[in-house]
Structure formats: structure tokens, C-alpha cells
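hey so u asked for the seq, here:
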Amino acid sequence: MSRIESLFRKKKNILNIYFTAGFPKPDDTVLIANELEKAGVDMIEIGMPFSDPLADGPVIQHSSSIALQNGMGLDLIFSQIKTIRKTTQLPIILMGYVNQLMRYGEDAFFDKAAACGVDGLIIPDLPVEIYLEKYQQKVEKAGLDMIFLITPQTDEARIKLLDESSRGFLYVVSSASTTGKTAAMQHQEAYFERIRQMKLKNPLLIGFGISDKKSFDTACQYASGAIIGSAFIKALEKGPEIRKNIQQFVKAIRD
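ran it, C-alpha cells below
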């Protein structure tokens, strides 16, 4: 049983926090992961900084730009995750884009991700048909969970295909927008309820637009938990005391 599957069997109201590797500083990846575990986060999603992200809004784009200027690359990220894995059993997800896999070499990427302790992958621009044809066997052989995204515009047949092709959980995008849109949760209850009533194979996590306790609690009414990214990236820049910023942010969501 994977760490992700084990988590969903044991807990409800799961809090998954996204942050960009190498932001604000190159060595902050390990520090942030350790502090998030201390603060009570259930799962961490580490973004691989990329110059042309399709799903990310301006906040995460900015963090990626800074991380790239800081010299972040995949080998350094793998090394940092290996260090993180020495002290935590939290599920770790890598989020990035197909171009990064192709430039690194898909086989090498999957093998190194698994070897350093990654549990799952989110690749928003990877079509499920290409995944099933080219990558599924390699990903599953490496022991990784591939997590697909659905949106309010995804039709029922494709939702079922994406659910069947996913392992770990299904990522429910709250609205047709990029990350960081604070109004994304408004008027989405009917959509969330429709997905919940489909009784899909995988547990659900809701992301995009989750920014505070209210939006997190709303998501937890319809899913097993939620993913917070842009709001946390902003919190990292609130002051020089990064540990304090992390603890205060998570406490505000949980309490």
C-alpha cells in the first residue's frame, strides 16, 4: 500500500500544501517540508519550477521564476527530496510538466523520483491517452501514483476514464481558471456534489482557489480534503521568519 493510499484510509479533511522547490531560497525546500510536517500538514506537493507553466497563476509563476534564478533543477530537487525522506513519512507528490520529463528522459525521471522517495506525480498537461499508451507501465513499475485532474467542463465519460487511470486520488479543479483565483470556490457546490455522487474509485481532493479556513472547510464537505498552493506561497514571503510564517498559516487553516 502506498503512503498516499494509507493516508486516505486513515484520515479525513486532508490538508495538502503545495510549494515550489527552491523558493524563496534554494535550500528552503527541505526546511519548508520539515516545518509543514511539524505544523500538522498531511501531504506535501513540491512544484518543479518551469518557465512556461500552463496551470499556474501569477503567484506560483513568480515563485518558479525565482526558483529558476536560484539555480533549481531536477537533480537538485531529487537530492533535496532524498534528504526530506530521511526524516518524514509524509506522502510527497511532484508537480510539473511533460516538457520537464522529456528533457530529463522519462525513464530516468520516473526511476529517480521513486528512488528518492516521491510517492505520486501531477502532470497537468499530460493527456491521459498518452499516459496510458506510453507511460503507465513505467510509472506503475516504479511504484508511483499518477494523479489526474478534472474540471467543471470535464464530461462524465472522461471523468470516469481519468478516475480509472489515476492512483492515489483524483484532483478536482474547482473552476476553469489557473491557480490562485480566490473566487474559485464560489457557486461550485453543485459541481462538487455532482462529482461526489458519481461514487468514483479514487478519493477526491479539491484544489485551485483554496486559500483560507472557510474555503478549506467547504472543500472538505464534498471531498476528502483540499490542496492549498498560491496562498501558502504568499505566506512564505510575509516576513523573514519562515518557520513562524508556516506555523501561523497552517494553524489558521486547521483551527
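Residues 3-254 form a domain with the TIM Barrel fold (CATH 3.20.20.70). The chain has a mean pLDDT of 93.
lmk if thats what u needed
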